[in-house]
């Protein structure tokens, strides 16, 4: 066990949470201009996992200097990339909005989270297919074990994308080196609960982090001593991690 889970949140617009277009009702209007849908969803999930009040947070947040960010998203900025590519192919590069250029970066979501909440620890995005969410949890745990961060915000997010018909969702798990009631275990032994698919349907790179949030909710309610999270397929491979109640 290398990291405790000290906070978690699931943000699903189809289940009543605010949509990317209405993210200002949770986050406040300042700082959202030009942000793509996946980034807005991710910011909502982090805001809720940290237990912050409505509106833009007052910086610096406690512990922000030693907080890292790991994001799992395979399709996060795909609309921006597709739009820019189409304009380039059509010979209309001058039509690309300067507001869209930052969104073309594969690390834009993690960077936006760090800037908004003042996190100055390690910052990275994983786009490793169907194992991406669990890969992100493992990387976050290892950053803490290696003394690269005292706390890591792990986010899984995918937008509503017609390319693979994903469900818009963002999930956030806050990991810490401080003791907590729940923890990650890098082992893959059988557990009381096993999570694979999710009722939300296709959530691709967000799946592993969504599973971690669901496991944290169930274990906190006394549903079992541990849960095994597993995701992947024959093309991307498989990955597992356990959430355990201490």
Automatic annotation (TrEMBL):
Keyword hit for Transferase: yes
Pfam families registered for this protein in UniProt: ketoacyl-synt
Transferase keyword on record: yes
Domain Beta-ketoacyl synthase-like N-terminal, chain residue ranges per copy: 36-178
Domain of life: Bacteria
Keywords from the named record: Transferase
Protein name, as recorded: Beta-ketoacyl synthase, N-terminal domain
Phylogenetic lineage: Bacteria, Bacillati, Actinomycetota, Actinomycetes, Pseudonocardiales
